[in-house]
Amino acid sequence: MTGDTVLLVSQTGVVRGASGSAVGLLGRRLSLQHTELAELIEGQLPQEARDCLSAERPEWTGRICFRHSTTGTPIPAHLTLRRAQDEPRWFIASVNPITAHHHLDQHLFDHVLLPLILHDASGRIRQVNKATCRLFSCVPEDLIGKRAADLHPKIGPYAPPSFSLPVGGSFSFSTRLIRKDQRDIPVEVHVVKFHQEGEDFVLGSLRDLSREDLLLTRLVQTQQLELMGRLSGGLAHDLNNLLMIIINNSSMLQEEFERLAADPEVAEIAQDLRAAAESAGDLTKQLLDVVRVRSNERRAVDLNELIGGMVRVLGAAIGATATLKTELADTIPTIMADPGQLMQLVANLVMNARDAMTQAGQITVRTSAVWTSGAERCVLEVEDTGPGIPDHVVPHIFEHMFTTKGQSGGTGLGLGSVQDIVTAHGASIDLFTEVGVGTRFRIDFPVSHQDDNESTFPHRLNVRSPETRRVLVVDDLDAIRAILQRILSREGMKVEQATNGIEALERLRDPSKPAVSLLITDLLMPVMNGRDLCRTVVAEQPDLPIIVLSAYSADLMFDDMARTNIRFLAKPIRPSKLVPLVKRLMVDAFPEP
Known about the structure:
By secondary structure, the chain is α+β, with helices and mostly antiparallel strands. The chain is 35% helix and 26% strand.
């Protein structure tokens, strides 16, 4: 036979021979005798073709779909049956495959970014574009010849409506398909039916919903974290009020026992009680700093102190997966930073390192001071002995929503937040990683030379007379007002009380009563909160010093607070912080004549 794609077929429809190109096109099985022509065809041989074989018509040409005898791949083609000239009992069957351009131009098909799948009327896939192959992580041969229902059982119920549509009709539905790697992907499918060259086709376009599902999952996780933060903040606020009472009462008990030379064991019990309460107060402050939604509180921060205070919490958080080690420089310059954001940064880096550990390892948090380009820098490093980061992942690690932990893993927000914090503080971050060795993040902070002069407050009350030592304490909790009155009264101050902002304003506006020298108010109170009280007092009595106490951040105050006589103290307060600040403000307000 020639190089044409031809078959030698008997009157009974049995293939008796095939050209080399026919064997290559339709399968090696053709090289064997007694292959039924009907076995190579999708569906039944048309009646006109059977009439030709039975000598009722001399020739027939029509369009049929062959099926590869080995793989089952569909092969649309034009078939011509013609009786052999020398032997009337035999027929020459010429096969002319219908190439891609008979369906949809493959070049244009591949340039469509949306995944497209072309089915014939029976539901078998005839053609796919590159976007489809990317979606299914496969090559066209993995899909050509399959039925729609083969991609995933869940698509089965939708197949009949799709393929029984009238020409020009369309149909949309959502389902889940299965990739070659067995990953399940949600998709939205839109199909349209059309007629071309005597055959009906169904074109399906797919929209991958997995990214949208991931974003929705991340949003839900973020909302859950925000809710947890609010709940934690509320609990920490209430706990701080209780701790403030315990800390200050135990402190005064200890001082009283020491003054009376009472049983030293009782004084030690009071000291232990205060120390435990102060430790609990430090933990609640760290919790509030971490869960804060935003922050504008910048101050001089010693990284060594901040990390030292976090070690116990971080050590408990990483569990038995890894051991936490610190290598803190003997001396280190301070940096101007938000403590809460720095704690979030350190926690994210440490927890990210913990999550990377596939087996037991070590996480090291290190500080140092270096000179770079003629300027001093404070350096923070977090290093792990994990598996390292693959090269293809490195460019994406700081992207928000990017995670290698799968849909049930992390939120993809950790390292993105780290970079946001680094940028906001004018710092820089570098990554050093080696697969099989480990990963190190290095952050260089600019150094601050501003001193926190809170520790330089005078410790001697220096006002004109005891009558000027009048303090108004505003808090909705009786126990908090009582402890503040006890602390300040021991310093020779006259203390008045109010339960909310309205009562406080009534007292401040009363001309029949002595003037108040200092206002101390809680931030969150019923009727009128501390924020609104401060705004009103600043407008009416701008020279009156104010101390705001709260378990929450100073962020809740108004933006121009720094330009007023308002100072902020975080609960639980201690006499060692409150009393010097009160004395300083009263000296500034009422200097000696």
